[in-house]
Design a protein that fits this description.
Helix content: over 70%
Number of domains: 1
Distance between the termini: 13 Å
Strand content: under 5%
Structural class: mainly alpha
Number of helices: 6
Number of strands: 0
Protein backbone atom coordinates (compact mmCIF):
# COMPACT_ATOMS: atom_id res chain seq x y z
CA UNK A 1 0.00 0.00 0.00
CA UNK A 2 2.86 2.36 0.79
CA UNK A 3 4.43 1.89 -2.63
CA UNK A 4 1.08 2.79 -4.19
CA UNK A 5 0.99 5.93 -2.02
CA UNK A 6 4.50 6.96 -3.07
CA UNK A 7 3.74 6.34 -6.74
CA UNK A 8 0.50 8.32 -6.44
CA UNK A 9 2.31 11.26 -4.88
CA UNK A 10 4.80 11.34 -7.74
CA UNK A 11 2.12 10.96 -10.40
CA UNK A 12 -0.27 13.44 -8.76
CA UNK A 13 2.43 16.10 -8.47
CA UNK A 14 2.83 16.00 -12.27
CA UNK A 15 -0.82 16.53 -13.12
CA UNK A 16 -1.81 19.73 -14.96
CA UNK A 17 -5.07 20.25 -13.06
CA UNK A 18 -6.58 19.73 -9.63
CA UNK A 19 -9.17 17.37 -11.09
CA UNK A 20 -6.47 15.12 -12.51
CA UNK A 21 -4.57 15.31 -9.20
CA UNK A 22 -7.71 14.09 -7.46
CA UNK A 23 -8.25 11.35 -10.05
CA UNK A 24 -4.73 10.01 -9.45
CA UNK A 25 -5.28 9.89 -5.69
CA UNK A 26 -8.72 8.29 -6.01
CA UNK A 27 -7.36 5.58 -8.32
CA UNK A 28 -4.51 5.00 -5.91
CA UNK A 29 -6.93 4.76 -2.98
CA UNK A 30 -8.97 2.15 -4.83
CA UNK A 31 -5.85 0.14 -5.70
CA UNK A 32 -4.58 0.36 -2.11
CA UNK A 33 -7.90 -0.84 -0.70
CA UNK A 34 -7.83 -3.84 -3.05
CA UNK A 35 -4.22 -4.63 -2.08
CA UNK A 36 -5.07 -4.23 1.61
CA UNK A 37 -8.10 -6.51 1.42
CA UNK A 38 -6.19 -9.18 -0.50
CA UNK A 39 -3.33 -8.99 2.02
CA UNK A 40 -5.71 -9.26 4.97
CA UNK A 41 -7.47 -12.27 3.41
CA UNK A 42 -4.14 -13.92 2.62
CA UNK A 43 -2.81 -13.41 6.15
CA UNK A 44 -6.07 -14.60 7.72
CA UNK A 45 -6.09 -17.72 5.57
CA UNK A 46 -2.47 -18.44 6.50
CA UNK A 47 -3.28 -18.05 10.20
CA UNK A 48 -6.51 -20.05 9.84
CA UNK A 49 -8.51 -17.11 11.16
CA UNK A 50 -11.96 -16.15 9.94
CA UNK A 51 -12.68 -12.67 8.65
CA UNK A 52 -16.25 -12.84 9.90
CA UNK A 53 -15.41 -12.95 13.61
CA UNK A 54 -16.33 -10.23 16.08
CA UNK A 55 -12.91 -8.53 16.03
CA UNK A 56 -12.78 -8.48 12.23
CA UNK A 57 -16.25 -6.91 12.08
CA UNK A 58 -15.29 -4.33 14.71
CA UNK A 59 -12.09 -3.52 12.84
CA UNK A 60 -14.02 -3.07 9.58
CA UNK A 61 -16.65 -0.88 11.23
CA UNK A 62 -13.97 1.26 12.87
CA UNK A 63 -12.44 1.90 9.45
CA UNK A 64 -15.69 2.25 7.53
CA UNK A 65 -17.15 5.28 9.30
CA UNK A 66 -14.14 7.60 8.76
CA UNK A 67 -13.69 6.36 5.18
CA UNK A 68 -17.33 7.06 4.33
CA UNK A 69 -16.99 10.50 5.95
CA UNK A 70 -13.83 11.11 3.91
CA UNK A 71 -15.59 10.15 0.68
CA UNK A 72 -18.50 12.49 1.42
CA UNK A 73 -16.20 15.36 2.37
CA UNK A 74 -14.08 14.78 -0.73
CA UNK A 75 -17.15 14.89 -2.94
CA UNK A 76 -18.36 18.13 -1.37
CA UNK A 77 -14.93 19.75 -1.61
CA UNK A 78 -14.71 18.72 -5.25
CA UNK A 79 -18.15 20.18 -6.03
CA UNK A 80 -17.18 23.54 -4.51
CA UNK A 81 -13.72 23.32 -6.17
CA UNK A 82 -11.82 23.47 -2.88
CA UNK A 83 -8.90 21.07 -3.09
CA UNK A 84 -6.64 22.67 -0.48
CA UNK A 85 -8.04 20.83 2.55
CA UNK A 86 -8.40 17.40 0.98
CA UNK A 87 -4.95 16.19 2.02
CA UNK A 88 -5.33 17.10 5.71
CA UNK A 89 -8.87 15.71 5.80
CA UNK A 90 -7.81 12.40 4.24
CA UNK A 91 -4.86 11.98 6.58
CA UNK A 92 -6.85 12.88 9.69
CA UNK A 93 -9.82 10.68 8.83
CA UNK A 94 -7.70 7.73 7.76
CA UNK A 95 -5.69 8.11 10.95
CA UNK A 96 -8.88 8.20 13.01
CA UNK A 97 -10.07 5.03 11.30
CA UNK A 98 -6.80 3.21 11.85
CA UNK A 99 -6.61 4.36 15.47
CA UNK A 100 -10.19 3.27 16.14
CA UNK A 101 -9.76 -0.06 14.33
CA UNK A 102 -6.48 -0.59 16.12
CA UNK A 103 -8.42 -1.12 19.32
CA UNK A 104 -9.15 -4.58 17.89
CA UNK A 105 -5.66 -5.37 16.67
CA UNK A 106 -2.03 -5.27 17.79
CA UNK A 107 -0.88 -2.05 19.55
CA UNK A 108 1.30 -0.90 16.65
CA UNK A 109 -1.85 -0.32 14.57
CA UNK A 110 -2.96 2.36 17.03
CA UNK A 111 0.48 3.97 16.69
CA UNK A 112 0.04 4.09 12.92
CA UNK A 113 -3.28 5.87 13.39
CA UNK A 114 -1.70 8.44 15.71
CA UNK A 115 1.10 9.04 13.20
CA UNK A 116 -1.40 9.55 10.37
CA UNK A 117 -3.31 12.04 12.50
CA UNK A 118 -0.08 13.88 13.36
CA UNK A 119 0.74 14.03 9.66
CA UNK A 120 -2.73 15.42 9.00
CA UNK A 121 -2.21 18.09 11.65
CA UNK A 122 1.14 18.98 10.05
CA UNK A 123 -0.71 19.30 6.74
CA UNK A 124 -3.18 21.69 8.37
CA UNK A 125 -0.36 23.83 9.79
CA UNK A 126 1.64 24.15 6.57
CA UNK A 127 0.79 25.80 3.26
CA UNK A 128 -1.80 23.94 1.15
CA UNK A 129 0.79 23.49 -1.60
CA UNK A 130 2.55 21.00 0.69
CA UNK A 131 -0.50 18.70 0.72
CA UNK A 132 0.89 16.26 -1.81
CA UNK A 133 4.12 15.98 0.18
CA UNK A 134 2.17 15.17 3.36
CA UNK A 135 0.17 12.57 1.45
CA UNK A 136 3.45 11.00 0.31
CA UNK A 137 4.74 11.01 3.89
CA UNK A 138 1.51 9.48 5.21
CA UNK A 139 0.17 7.09 2.60
CA UNK A 140 3.65 6.31 1.31
CA UNK A 141 6.21 6.62 4.07
CA UNK A 142 4.12 5.60 7.06
CA UNK A 143 2.72 2.57 5.26
CA UNK A 144 6.16 1.44 4.07
CA UNK A 145 7.85 2.04 7.42
CA UNK A 146 5.18 0.49 9.61
CA UNK A 147 4.58 -2.26 7.05
CA UNK A 148 8.22 -3.29 7.31
CA UNK A 149 8.00 -3.21 11.12
CA UNK A 150 4.83 -5.30 11.13
CA UNK A 151 6.27 -7.80 8.66
CA UNK A 152 9.36 -8.21 10.81
CA UNK A 153 7.65 -8.35 14.19
CA UNK A 154 4.20 -9.77 13.45
CA UNK A 155 4.77 -11.94 10.41
CA UNK A 156 3.17 -9.76 7.78
Amino acid sequence: MGVIGLAAAIAAARQPSADRWLAVWLCAAFAAVVVGLVAIAWKARGADVTLTGANARRFALGMAAPLVAGAAITYELWTVRSFAVMAPAWLLLYGAGVLTSGMFSVPVIRAIGVCFMATGIAAVLTPPAWGNVWLAVGFGGLHVGFGAYIARNYGG
